[in-house]
Amino acid sequence: MRVLHSIEELAKIPGPVCVAIGVFDGVHLGHQALIQRVMQEAENVGGSAVVLTFHPHPARVVRPESAPRLLTSTLHKEKLIRALGCPNLLLVTFDAEFAAQAPETFIEKLARQANPLRCLCVGHQWAFGRGRSGNVDLLRSLGARLGFETVEIDPVTAGGETVSSTRIRRCIEAGDFDSARELLGRDYTILGTVQHGAKLGTKLGFPTANLAAHNEQFPPNGVYSVRALFRDEWRAGVANIGTRPTVDGVSGRLLEVHLFEHSGECYGEEMEVRFVHFLRPEQKFESLDALKAQIAKDAELARQGT
Description:
With about 300 residues, the protein is an alpha/beta fold. It folds into 2 domains: about 1-160, Rossmann fold, CATH 3.40.50.620; about 190-305, Riboflavin kinase-like (Elongation Factor Tu (Ef-tu), domain 3). Helix content is about 30%, strand content about 25%. The protein has helices at about 30-45, 60, 75-85, 95-100, 105-115, 135-145, 165-175, 175-185, 200-205, 290-305, and strands at about 1-5, 15-20, 50-55, 90-95, 115-120, 150, 155-160, 160, 190-195, 210, 220-230, 235-240, 255-260, 270-280. The strands form 3 sheets. Strands 1-4-3-2-5-6 form a 6-stranded parallel β-sheet, sandwiched between helices. A 6-stranded antiparallel β-barrel has the order 9-10-13-12-11-14. The longest helix is centred in the first third of the chain and has 17 residues, at about 30-45.
């Protein structure tokens, strides 16, 4: 998959060009339908499909105080879109200047750079541009002038409700992985980068990989049996989400993963974590020895469930 980082780079893509636009947080069933549609449109005209998304999430720029937790970081989103077979991904930097531009400006720039722009595919009732003032009707009007077609896909539903990133976040927050899987079309996972920690796990005999997540939505605090994709192999392990109350208590929530079949350092490497079973809530122990004993029990339970 070719990854572009500016609208000007669209000029490199063989035309006619069909573009799917969206935030695509989670790359859930609705997003997958949109991506599959743009690839079909491109195939129909013998052109190129491009998925256009934004970094960071627009809400983190226009309303940072209430921006949602992410289902997928940009890196994770890129990985999932690649797996769908998309040939081209355009990552547009979303900043205050971009947010302030008129919706017409954004679309006209796309049309100028593509060779040519044949169609834009968007989700149901998609809104864009300054103050979300642009809509599908505006796209159709611009398309009539600039020579492209607008394709608005129908909502995808599950359980009688529209599939949405907001709905999936609520499932994850509640620890309802089965419902999240139904809406995502895959297991919910968190992709993180292994960072340096206090190495307490090593001292206790259970070395952990501390994941620097990227504002992702965590499930409830507690201990989980997990599977982790590390160095191209899914490995069994046990993970803790929380604030480590027995040790020092941290201001933010941490995701720490102990893999059963791994030794050695892995700092700076990527790890994708899938939550298999909830084992117990996080709790504060009276001593490190008590914590160590409980971790051993947790690991044994996790091994039995893998």
